Amino acid sequence: MKRELISLIVPCYNEEEMIPLYITEIEKIMINMPEVDYEYVFVNDGSKDQTLKVLKEQALLNSHVRYLSFSRNFGKEAGLYAGLKHAKGDYVVVMDVDLQDPPELLPEMYRLIKTEAFDCIGTRRSTRKGEPPIRSYFARQFYRLINRISDTEIVDGARDYRMMTRQMVNAILEISEYNRFSKGIFSWVGFETKYLEFENKERVAGETSWSFWSLFKYSIDGIVAFSEAPLDIASIVGFLSFAAAVVLAIFFAIRTLIFGNPTSGWTSLITIILGLGGMQLLSLGILGKYVGKVFLEAKRRPIYILKETDEDLRNHETTK
Ligand code: UDP
Ligand code: MG
């Protein structure tokens, strides 16, 4: 009988140090899972260091290693999409190269997905140990907010690290939107997911490519992609301030009729002007965010552009 194939999709951005360490760790696990075959699908996301060179070396050493290399940095989400598209496995795993996603969970994931009829085994961090407290705080607030305003459930602490069936992967590939927020997409497609918990781990080498600001922008993208609530809020605030204006107009009219004196008070006027002006700009900004996303989607640009893959390398080797 043909052995089932597991594809490991690993997006890499400036990870020259991590790749050999990562492969060593995975090999230790896979040696104990002789019942399955596996392939690595590394995605070099336009790294500025020697990542591509390291991938080429590894591909020549190890026949399990496949890689895709982008023409520039397209972001981790694009890397995941490319990996999913090129993975050949019956089961597909998405994981980071920095070993923050513990490879020890792989046998358990495989066992659960095989025997308990889950479509996806996800993982979540039970703690955010080792992360700056301020970052954890904002992360938690983000999950609270997005779950309140979006119909798609986004599990707090859930990582992208997961094993999925071929069926679920095909469903994800159907979603070809440009603004990709994977945490939302994984949940939007549905299917039965079980979460395994593990303790947060520090990166083994290299450094995180996320700054506080980039995380902030990422969370705004997530909200725009999976919720229309900000648009409703803008309308509601607009309606409320209009209602307040009507009430105030009536109040001032009556007061002037009864007491005769015109309203003194420059302060109240300027406050109202500033308040309304601010609200209008904010609403325009919110609207603009969505229009901008529509613009990007409408252009239908490809999500990523490949420059080369391991096939180029292997063909080159055989024709030499
Ligand atoms: N990554 C990527 N493209 C990017 C940024 C990151 O492919 O533009 C990869 C990175 O190499 C790593 C994974 O995404 O494998 C997660 O990145 P990182 O460890 O920096 O994020 P964190 O774990 O801090 O959330
Ligand atoms: Mg990391």
Outline the structure in words.
The protein has 320 residues and is of the alpha/beta class. The protein has 2 domains: 4-227 and 302-318, Alpha-Beta Complex (Spore Coat Polysaccharide Biosynthesis Protein SpsA, Chain A), CATH 3.90.550; 229-299. It is 52% helix and 16% strand. It has helices at residues 18-30, 51-61, 76-86, 106-115, 133-149, 166-174, 182-188, 212-226, 229-259, 266-299, 310-319, and strands at 4-12, 36-44, 65-70, 91-94, 120-125, 158-165, 193-198, 306-309. It has an 8-stranded mixed beta sheet, with helices on both faces. Helix 9 packs antiparallel against helix 10 (266-299). It is elongated and about 95 Å long. 26% of the residues are buried. The structure holds uridine-5'-diphosphate (UDP) and magnesium ion.
Layout of helices and strands:
Layout: E1 4-12, H1 18-30, E2 36-44, H2 51-61, E3 65-70, H3 76-86, E4 91-94, H4 106-115, E5 120-125, H5 133-149, E6 158-165, H6 166-174, H7 182-188, E7 193-198, H8 212-226, H9 229-259, H10 266-299, E8 306-309, H11 310-319
Parallel strand pairs: 1-2, 1-4, 2-3, 5-7
Antiparallel strand pairs: 3-8, 4-6, 5-6
Helix pairs in contact: 5-8, 9-10
Bound molecules: uridine-5'-diphosphate and magnesium ion (MG).
What labels would you give this structure?
alpha/beta; 16% strand; eight-stranded mixed β-sheet; 8 strands; Spore Coat Polysaccharide Biosynthesis Protein SpsA, Chain A; 320 residues; 11 helices; single chain; 2 domains; binds uridine-5'-diphosphate; binds magnesium ion
